[in-house]
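Supplementary Methods. Inverse-folding protocol.

Structures were first reduced to a discrete structure-token string of length 211. This string, shown here, constituted the complete conditioning input.
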């Protein structure tokens, strides 16, 4: 059975959540981003939402130990149910605040569509500082966010973010700012990969590694 069907069924199949599941599957390049993430060791998915990508990551490589964190109890419950339905033993879901939680030394950390939902630029810096400190030497940081272009894809993403998360102070991180912040915390080899081809939003994948 292919990945889409396995996850679709694990998230309850046709029902209340299926439209959102299909939407996430269509707008996000699961395979491409998964390839940038270490295949073994402790990996944090911070701000995991319903955990669709976290479960996908655990399913792809049993050597990964995924810890998926979100502040929403409902989303954590949904992710946990899906992981149980698939019988995955290499993923756990934790309800916590990523601005405050203590992180264990990790091989990788993912911030997928999360930084721009934090209330202030200073909060983005707090999360990044904590993540950089937790990465093991060689550990990888993966950030998926929204790039300034292509312009129409950027504007579409901005519109959707401001409708779905009405009232949030949406602030997309800038590549240069991100790079210098990470380098100040010992995380280098910063690179920028546009991943919007065939997708409606200006998604960009930033990768970097701890020295
Ligand atoms: C746009 S969603 C992205 C979800 C997921 N990464 C994905 O790509 O499907 C942002 C998520 O970040 C979570 N979040 C925002 N601030 C948080 C915080 N301080 N601590 C934990 N989770 C947080 C929200 O609850 C939400 O589920």
């Amino acid at each position: 059975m292919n990945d889409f069907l396995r996850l679709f069924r694990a998230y309850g199949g046709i029902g209340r959540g299926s439209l959102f599941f299909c939407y996430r599957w269509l707008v996000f390049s699961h395979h491409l981003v998964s390839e940038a993430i270490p295949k073994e060791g402790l990996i944090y998915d911070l701000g995991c939402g319903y955990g669709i990508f976290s479960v996908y990551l655990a399913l792809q490589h049993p050597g990964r130990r995924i810890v998926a964190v979100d502040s929403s109890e409902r989303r954590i419950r949904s992710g946990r149910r899906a992981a149980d339905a698939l019988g995955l033993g290499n993923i756990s879901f934790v309800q916590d605040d990523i601005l405050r939680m203590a992180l264990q030394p990790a091989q990788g950390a993912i911030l997928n569509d999360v930084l721009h939902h934090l209330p202030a630029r200073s909060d983005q810096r707090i999360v990044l500082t904590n993540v950089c400190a937790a990465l093991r030497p060689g550990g990888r940081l993966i950030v998926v966010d929204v790039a300034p272009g292509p312009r129409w894809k950027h504007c579409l993403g901005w519109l959707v973010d401001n409708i779905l998360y009405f009232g949030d102070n949406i602030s997309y991180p800038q590549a240069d700012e991100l790079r210098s912040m990470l380098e100040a915390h010992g995380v280098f080899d910063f690179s920028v990969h546009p991943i919007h081809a065939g997708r409606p939003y200006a998604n960009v994948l930033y990768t970097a590694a701890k020295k």
